[in-house]
């Protein structure tokens, strides 16, 4: 198949694809942004459509945008868990719907024709021997096992299903596909997807289970019970996405995961459909975090889990049409928007070509524009504002940063590590003194010694808590120091710029504040890169100095565990377990003097 020999569960093929995935092309994105800014419109006035064009440029590495030919890859399989009564439809509807797809009578056929996309239907594990013209058979076996009685599939079958998806995507790209839209069919697959999300995101089952094919409340309660039972029976490893797939997943879900990975490796955009395809994409991002940069969210369905998984993926859905069909229907509906995003930079005139004057404030240069006097230019709030695509990324990193305590045994790529350290090094510092140094601890022996000294201080600190906090305290973990591939010691050198540092004379601790700014920069950059960071502060400075050979005048400000993690929690750990709550912003704001309440107005600082 297209240069990818099937190896019956060998993980080597999977790893080789993951290694080929690189980050989006930032240079192409900047070039596309400049191109969009030259068009006959106010800056950013096409909003998300412009952001899509920038995204597509980054994915493909080119400003010559196209999504055609676009292909919907619809993977079908059956699920043994349907025997537990979790769906409104019997299991044989899967094969009946596949026949409908190939007869061109289903919703996805109508929508794809309207959206100028081709549909391929692939049998990944239908519980029947089907011989229908047009059906591509890549069957792993006839449906998964009932996951309430044991694993849905073997670990090797899960790998084989992912690699089959890789082959399917490779063949589609070889045939010329410029965009792959994800589709699925499988009675019972919302049950499997809900189970995967609950484990992978460490989320209560009842929060992710919806109505699926249109079940009633009593069936929904049954579905929650079945999923909880399956998780209890199989005990899937939350830190191993393939283990989760094998125990509570489906063959079509695994295949979709493989499609995402191969598309990302081939720099081909992936248009995610509904809940099931989004869960498959989430698994792909856990296996290869950079694959997230090749995902576009078509819509947000009524399934409660879909909103959660979109947030975990960083997907901003293009449409909210209250869909709950699957098949790739939402992706097909969104295709015209993407096609429009590719046409805007090609077909719109520039200010120069249309001989139209630019903006008065100079933000857009028009034809033969005369330079404006700075004093004559009125202030414009949006002049230096980021495009919404970049702006949302900044806020996303801030709001989704977490203090991580569990890490995967997975190395950090050199270029990624360099980027987050460089982000730290670009922090603001008092008098530009840059008082920081970074000691990268990779030695297992040294990490174990750090862990031992931290554990000792953790035990001592536990004596200071009472009541509920005393009960919670022993559950807090510092194991990340030995689990994470790197522990970073961040230090402060107060002598870096001499005795008298600009801005430090009256507040001597501003050098430490500067180091903390560097830590926050690194933390946010790490979150953007899919890396977890855990800040450990249980240690005596002298112990760390002695172990790491740090001079006596230099302070070890922080020990940071850095590495990949299985999940970023929805809330900070201490908030989730009830240690404390986030204070109201309004309670922390004063106006002009301490204790004077502040009220937000439409424009702050406007003349009265």
Automatic annotation (TrEMBL):
Residues 398-564 form the Nitroreductase domain. Keywords: Cobalamin biosynthesis, Glycosyltransferase, Transferase. Pathway: Nucleoside biosynthesis; alpha-ribazole biosynthesis; alpha-ribazole from 5,6-dimethylbenzimidazole: step 1/2. It comes from the Bacteria. Its EC number is 2.4.2.21. It catalyses: 5,6-dimethylbenzimidazole + nicotinate beta-D-ribonucleotide = alpha-ribazole 5'-phosphate + nicotinate + H(+). The active site is at residue 327. GO terms for molecular function: nicotinate-nucleotide-dimethylbenzimidazole phosphoribosyltransferase activity; oxidoreductase activity. Gene3D superfamilies: 1.10.1610.10, 3.40.50.10210, NADH Oxidase. One of its GO terms (biological process) is cobalamin biosynthetic process. InterPro entries: BluB (IPR012825), Nict_dMeBzImd_PRibTrfase (IPR003200), Nict_dMeBzImd_PRibTrfase_bact (IPR017846), Nict_dMeBzImd_PRibTrfase_N (IPR023195), Nict_dMeBzImd_PRibTrfase_sf (IPR036087), Nitroreductase (IPR029479), Nitroreductase-like (IPR000415). NCBIfam families: BluB (TIGR02476), cobT_DBIPRT (TIGR03160), PRK00105.1 (NF000996). Catalyzes the synthesis of alpha-ribazole-5'-phosphate from nicotinate mononucleotide (NAMN) and 5,6-dimethylbenzimidazole (DMB). Belongs to the CobT family. This is Nicotinate-nucleotide--dimethylbenzimidazole phosphoribosyltransferase. It comes from Alicyclobacillus mengziensis. The gene is cobT.
């Amino acid at each position: 198949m297209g240069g990818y020999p099937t190896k019956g569960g060998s993980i080597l093929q999977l790893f080789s694809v993951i290694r080929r995935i690189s980050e989006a092309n930032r240079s192409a994105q900047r070039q596309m942004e400049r191109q969009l800014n030259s068009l006959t419109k106010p800056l950013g006035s096409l909003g998300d459509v412009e952001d899509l064009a920038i995204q597509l440029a980054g994915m493909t590495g080119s400003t010559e945008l196209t999504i055609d030919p676009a292909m919907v890859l619809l993977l079908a399989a059956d699920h043994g868990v349907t025997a537990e009564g979790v769906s409104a439809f019997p299991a044989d509807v899967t094969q009946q719907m596949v026949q409908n797809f190939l007869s061109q009578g289903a919703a996805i056929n109508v929508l794809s024709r309207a959206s100028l996309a081709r549909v391929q239907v692939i049998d990944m594990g239908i519980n029947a021997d089907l011989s229908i013209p047009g059906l591509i058979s890549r069957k792993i076996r006839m449906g998964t096992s009932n996951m309430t009685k044991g694993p849905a599939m073997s670990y090797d079958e899960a790998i084989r299903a992912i690699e089959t998806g890789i082959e399917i995507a490779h063949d589609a790209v070889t045939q010329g596909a410029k965009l792959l839209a994800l589709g699925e069919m499988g009675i019972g697959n919302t049950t499997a997807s809900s189970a995967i999300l609950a484990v992978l995101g460490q989320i209560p089952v009842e929060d992710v289970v919806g109505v699926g094919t249109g079940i009633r409340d009593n069936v929904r309660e049954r579905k929650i019970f079945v999923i909880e039972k399956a998780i209890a029976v199989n005990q899937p490893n939350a830190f191993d996405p393939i283990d989760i797939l094998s125990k509570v997943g489906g063959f079509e879900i695994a295949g979709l995961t493989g499609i995402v990975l191969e598309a990302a490796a081939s720099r081909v955009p992936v248009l995610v459909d509904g809940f099931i395809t989004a869960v498959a994409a989430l698994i792909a991002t856990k296996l290869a975090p950079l694959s997230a940069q090749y995902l576009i969210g078509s819509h947000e369905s009524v399934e409660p889990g879909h909103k959660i998984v979109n947030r975990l993926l960083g997907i901003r859905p293009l449409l909210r049409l209250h869909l709950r069909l699957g098949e790739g229907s939402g992706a097909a509906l969104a295709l015209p928007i993407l096609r429009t995003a590719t046409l805007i930079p090609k077909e719109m005139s520039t200010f120069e070509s249309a001989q139209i004057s630019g903006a008065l404030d100079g933000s857009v240069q028009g034809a033969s524009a005369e330079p404006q006097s700075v004093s004559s230019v009125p202030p414009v709030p949006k002049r230096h504002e980021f495009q919404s695509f970049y702006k949302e990324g900044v806020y996303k990193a801030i709001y989704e940063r977490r203090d991580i305590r569990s890490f995967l045994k997975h190395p950090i790529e050199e270029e990624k590590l360099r980027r987050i350290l460089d982000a730290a090094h670009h922090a603001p510092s008092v008098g530009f003194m840059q008082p920081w140094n970074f000691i990268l601890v990779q030695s297992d022996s040294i990490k174990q010694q750090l862990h031992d000294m931290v554990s000792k201080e953790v035990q001592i600190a536990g004596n200071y808590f009472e009541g509920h906090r005393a009960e919670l305290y022993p559950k807090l973990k510092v194991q990340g120091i030995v689990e994470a591939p790197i522990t970073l010691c961040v230090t402060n050198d107060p002598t870096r710029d001499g005795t008298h540092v600009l801005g430090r004379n009256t507040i001597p601790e501003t050098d430490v504040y500067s180091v903390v700014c560097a830590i926050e920069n690194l933390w946010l950059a790490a979150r953007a890169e899919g890396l977890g960071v855990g800040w450990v502060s249980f240690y005596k400075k002298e112990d760390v100095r002695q172990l790491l050979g740090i001079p006596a005048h230099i302070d070890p400000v922080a020990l940071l565990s850095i590495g990949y993690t299985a999940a970023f929690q929805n809330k900070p750990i201490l908030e989730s377990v009830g240690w404390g709550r986030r204070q109201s912003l309004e309670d922390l704001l004063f106006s002009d003097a301490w204790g004077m309440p502040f009220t937000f107005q439409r424009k702050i600082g406007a003349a009265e």
